[in-house]
TrEMBL record:
It comes from the Bacteria. One of its GO terms (molecular function) is metalloendopeptidase activity. InterPro entries: Cell_wall_metabolism_enzyme (IPR050570), Dup_hybrid_motif (IPR011055), M23ase_b-sheet_dom (IPR016047). It comes from Streptomyces nanshensis. Keywords: Signal. SUPFAM superfamilies: Duplicated hybrid motif. Residues 1-22 form the signal peptide. This is M23ase beta-sheet core domain-containing protein. The keyword Signal applies. Residues 80-177 form the M23ase beta-sheet core domain.
Amino acid sequence: MGCHARPSLVCAVLLVVAVLVAAPPPPSAAVRLLPTVRAGEPPPPAVLRTEGDGGPVWPLAGRPAVVRGWEPPAGPYGPGHRGVDLAARAGDTVVAAATGRVSFAGRVAGRGALVIELAGSGAPPLRTTYEPVRALVAKGDEVVAGRPVGLLEAGPFHCAGGCLHWGLRRGEAYLNPLSLLRRGPSRLLPVSGVPEP
């Protein structure tokens, strides 16, 4: 039974519903994903997350596998793992996990290392560390979350396969870098002085 057999108001409503259902979501509702990046190839800037997109991102394209997690030591000199190892290959592009300023870009014990102080993170500021990397930025450079800052070097790695060691510190305290990516759960606070319904 076609629309010509129904009253015109019903046909108009059906037409509007059909258009709304078929319409794509507005650009603000679109999901933006980091692209897959080939070794040695910087990600296209137009599709990277930036400062205005809501904060920290993974330091490698997509969501890399965590090869080894953070294992805080019992004491300042005790055994542990003071960061996380993310699966990667030599030549992969490393991006800034958060917006800030480069405080170190150079070699430590023969390995390329990069340290970024995070903007607006308090005193002493949070610092993210990346190794082994060949830095594409220099000390003092401002960096934005999601923008390329280095290329993963060939190693030696302290994990079985290739990996990026990603760390987080505040002063001398080592923290779990994955905490930058986690959004805390929503919490409802008690309302006082309002009668219950």
